[in-house]
Amino acid sequence: MDMETVKLATIVERLAPEMFDFLTSQELETKIVLRDGIELLEPEDALEIVQFSICRGQSGTILH
Q: Which of 53, 54, 44 is nearest to 16 (CA)?
């Protein structure tokens, strides 16, 4: 299997639809490169990708 680029929304819709409403539109539009394609992705992998995407999106955010 070759690498595949998909939007985070695609991963969430397929493997973790319960997370969809918790993500911003900007996070859902994030492009993710999957080394082995989406077909071999496991639900645990999807949750890890979601967590990383949220953290990455908040890296410049200052909380008060």
A: 44
Q: Give the span between the Cα atoms of 11 and 6, in whole angstroms.
A: 7
Q: What pLDDT digit, counting tens, does each position of 3-59 carry?
A: 999 999 999 999 999 999 999 999 999 999 999 999 999 999 999 999 998 888 776
Using CA atoms of 20, 34, 38, 3 in order, give the dihedral in degrees to the nearest 10.
150
Q: Distance of alpha carbon 33 from its chain centroid, rounded?
A: 10
3-state secondary structure (DSSP) of residue 2: coil
